[in-house]
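Changelog-linked ticket: zinc ion example.
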Amino acid sequence: MSRYGGKGRSKGKPEGFGPLEGQFQAIFDDFFRRPAAGSGQDRRIPMLVSLEEAASGASKVIKATFEAHCTACKGSGVLHGDPYVTGCPVCVGKRHVLQERTLTVKVPAGIDDGQVLRLAGQGDEAPLGVGRAGDLMIEVIVAPHPCLRRAGVDLFVEVRIDAETARRGGRVKVPVLDGERWIRVSAGTVTGAEMRLAGFGAVRLGAEAVPIPAEVTAAPYRSRSVGDHRGDQIVTFVVGESIADENDDTFELRRATRNQGLGRTVALAAALVAALIGAFVLGR
Ligand SMILES: [Zn+2]
C-alpha cells in the first residue's frame, strides 16, 4: 500500500502534484505554454532540499510569492470616481498586488536534483479575478551531502580503513541516510574494494518510502522486500596507513601527491609559501 493514495507499487503520482517533469520540459512549458486568456501565469521557484529529504521524502514549508488580483480596482487598474477616473492607489495601476503564501510541500521520496513539482493553481491569480490561476513550478535543488553521492537510486560513499583492519578484517562505521551503521570488513580488503548495502539507497520514485534497514545483516546484504522499494548504497574502501590518518586532511593530500610522485616537492613548496606569508604578515 503506497502512502500516496493507495496506488500500491504502481508508479502512482504523489497527491497534490501533477506529473514530475524534467527541468527542460518545465522550461519549455514556461516559454511555450499559452495560458487561456484571462488566466493567471505560472510561477517558478527553486526549493533546496537535503539529499536525505530527496532520497526518503519530506514535508517542507515554503513561502511563495504570487500576483493576486487587485480587489480594490477589480483588476482594471483604475478607480471610477465622480467626476474623474483615477489610477488605483492599491496596485498603482498594475492590476495586481504581490502577495506571499505559505505552503506545505510534500517532497516525494526518491525525487532528484532538477526535477520539478507542479502545484496546480498556486501560481498567479487571474488578473480579473475570474478564470484559473497559474501553477507553481517548484524546481528541486538537492544540496550536496558531505560524504554521500547519489546516482539514480543508488548512493555511493568512500570509507577509509586503516591498514591493520584491511589486513586482518574488522568492523567499521559507515555513514548512511539516517546516521551510521557498523559493517564488517573482510580480511585482505584492498583500496577500491566495494561492498553493496542493499536497500540503503534512495526510494524508487512512486514506491513506498520504507525506512532503510536497521542494521547491515550478514552477506550478501540483500533484502528483497526493502530492495523493491529502495536502491543500494555502495561502499568503496580506501586503505589508509593508520587510524590517525583517517581524521587528517593531510592523508588526502599525501595520497594525492604520492600518486603524482610530487609529495616532497609540494610539501616543500607549501612550507615555502607558508613561510613567505608568515614573513609578510609579521612584516606588516
Ligand atoms: Zn488595483
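Closing comment: Example verified and attached. The pocket of zinc ion is lined by residues 70, 72-73, 77, 88, 90-91 (CB under 6 Å). Helices lie at 23-32, 51-56, 163-168, 224-229, 243-246, 249-260, 263-283.
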